Amino acid sequence: MRVVAVFIGAPRTVEAGGSRVWWTAQGTPLPLGAFSENLVIEQALEGEICIGDVFRIGKAVVQVSLPRDPCRTIDRLTGIPGLHARIRESGRCGFHMRTLQPGEVRDGDAVEVAQRAAHGITVSTVLNLYHGRSLDRELFRRLEALTEFAEQGKREIGRRLAPG
């Protein structure tokens, strides 16, 4: 994996570069920054990256903490009505990272796996809970126990799985 583009700030919101290629193939080419991301990583796929995976990017060390859940702001920013719903449906949403060790990150930097999460819960699996494609309460209980999974995600899934 390699950094394709760095925008402002520390690595936090990541657009998986494979998604951009996929969207272009679907007839919706999107410019860098269309997802309001601040980091684009080629070959980072939601189905392979796990919550809690740790990466060394440039001089920084970061950890995947949460799937990205696009909202209607993307429709407004891109001028494409309904794009946020299409992104959610595709499961190509990207993810958020927390910074464990600050450091400079530049275009072209290698993205190295420093540690894989042993539980194997991928960003895609969590997105399925987020978007109602799964109602797996046992998976939610496992996620609740993960310190790597951001509290925001625990609240959001809990709200979506709440009875009534």
Distance between the termini: 43 Å
Radius of gyration: 15 Å
Total number of helical segments?
Answer: 6
The CATH topology is what? M1 Pyruvate Kinase, Domain 3
Give a structural overview:
The chain is of the alpha+beta class. It has one domain: M1 Pyruvate Kinase, Domain 3 (Beta Barrel), CATH 2.40.33.20. Helix content is 31%, strand content 23%. It has helices at residues 17-25, 73-78, 83-90, 123-130, 137-145, 151-161, and strands at residues 2-6, 13-16, 39-42, 54-57, 60-67, 95-101, 111-115. It has a seven-stranded mixed β-sheet with strand order 1-3-2-6-5-4-7. It is globular, with a radius of gyration of 15 Å. The protein starts with a strand and ends with a helix.
Protein traits:
alpha+beta; 164 residues; seven-stranded mixed beta sheet; 31% helix; M1 Pyruvate Kinase, Domain 3; 7 strands
Task: Give a topology summary.
Layout: E1 2-6, E2 13-16, H1 17-25, E3 39-42, E4 54-57, E5 60-67, H2 73-78, H3 83-90, E6 95-101, E7 111-115, H4 123-130, H5 137-145, H6 151-161
Parallel strand pairs: 2-3
Antiparallel strand pairs: 1-3, 2-6, 4-5, 4-7, 5-6
Helix pairs in contact: 5-6
